[in-house]
Structures are given as structure tokens and as C-alpha cells.
Amino acid sequence: MTDFNFDPNTMTRAYAQRKALTEEENVRPKARPKGIASKPDDGNTDTSSDEPNFYDKMLDQLLGYFSNEDEADKWAEINALEDKSRQGVAKSLVTFKKANAKRGRVAIVTQGADPVIVARQVGDEVVLEEYPIEPIAAEQLVDTNGAGDSFVGGFLSQLAQGKDLATCVKAGIYLSREVVQQSGCKMPAQMTFA
After folding, report:
1. Sign of the C-alpha dihedral, residues 57, 130, 145, 182?
2. To 5 degrees, how large is the angle CA 31–CA 156–CA 78?
3. Annotated active-site residue in 3, 56, 149, 164
4. Closest to 148 in 3D by CA, of 180, 184, 115, 123
5. Residue closest to 79 by CA, chosen among 102, 97, 104
6. Is 70's pLDDT higher than 90?
7. Distance from C-alpha of 4 to C-alpha of 173, rounded to nearest angstrom
């Protein structure tokens, strides 16, 4: 059973809320959250407005948040975090406002070859854990496209089976590691995660 209070119906409810918000405001969702650039140097980081947008309203519904290192660094910048470390970002994401303050949140920051950072709420405390990444020889690293999506897919594959958080993270690491050793985002022919 999961150890972080995940409700599998949350995504369905979040989609329904997204649709209702979009219809209520008669707007289409923006392509990305206010202030989040698709690339750190694309200049599309309008943070001047204090008006909550669609994404601000949705973030408080999330019980889990996945981020790569660039997204984590941008979160720290936009939110002017005092602790701009990726551990600080993970803590910030976990403690960000929630519609239901009684529900915990999990934040996961992937960092390529560096350890995966996991922050989760346990009561009023934030617990930080790091999961190491086994090094890959340079000649084995073929294509990093899809590494993050593969991590999330591996994670969710175990979550859907009711596995604990550590197993979910290890499955994410396993699948992303397998995918970067192939050209294109492809599933390995033989899955050996156990």
C-alpha cells in the first residue's frame, strides 16, 4: 500500500475542475504556467501580474509534483526562494498552498545523473530523501529525450499497483535509465525491474 496518501481518483477530479475553471472563465488554458519559460532563455517569464491564472488555481489541487532540475531552478527564481537549492525547492513545492490542507503532497525533483530528491509531508514536517542514480558509461548514454516522462511512467506504474514511495521512485529511475540507453523514447525490450 502507498505510504503517501494518494487517491487514484484525484486526476479525474483535477481534470473535471480544470474543465470547469476553463468554461467558467471562458478561456483556454495557457500553454505553460505564468512565469514558467519553456527554456530558461526564451524570455517568456511574465510574472508582473498578481492575478491568479488557471495554473495558480490548479497547483493548489496537486498532491504530487514532478520537476526536473531546470524547472526546479526556475521555481526558485520566480518565487524568490530564500533556499534556492533543489532540496529547498522540493520543500517549497510540498508546502505550497493546498485546497485541502489535511492532505499531504509529494514533490520529486529529478537531476539527470544526480540523486532524485523526494520531499513529502508527514504531519507538519517535511521529510527529504534522496535516491542515488547508478552511473551510466558515456558510451551507453544515447538519447536523453523522454527521460523525465519515462521516470514519471515508471513511478506511476508502481503507484497504480499500490507500491510504496521508495519502490515507485526506484521504478522511475529504472525506466528512465533504460530509455536513455536507446535512440528515441522506447521501452526496453526486456523489463527487469522487480
Report:
1. negative
2. 40
3. 149
4. 180
5. 97
6. yes
7. 19
What is the number of other CB atoms lying within 10 angstroms of the CB of residue 51?
Answer: 7
Banded model confidence at residue 167, pLDDT cuts 50, 70, 90 = very high
- Judged by DSSP in three states, 156 sits in helix
Q: Would you call 7 a catalytic residue per the annotation?
A: no
Tell whether the torsion through CA atoms of 64, 70, 74 and 76 is positive or negative: positive
Domain ranges of the chain: 136-183
91-102: burial string, b at 16+ Cβ within 10 Å, e else: bbbbeeebeeee
Give, as one character, the DSSP assignment of residue 28.
P
- Distance, CA of 156 to CA of 107 (rounded, Å): 14
How far, in Å, CA of 3 to CA of 163, rounded? 8
Count of helices and strands (H, E) across the chain:
6, 4
Q: How far apart are CA 21 and CA 13, in angstroms?
A: 12
Contact 90, 108 (CB under 8 A): yes
Which pLDDT value is given to residue 3?
47
**Three cell numbers, residue 171:** 521504478
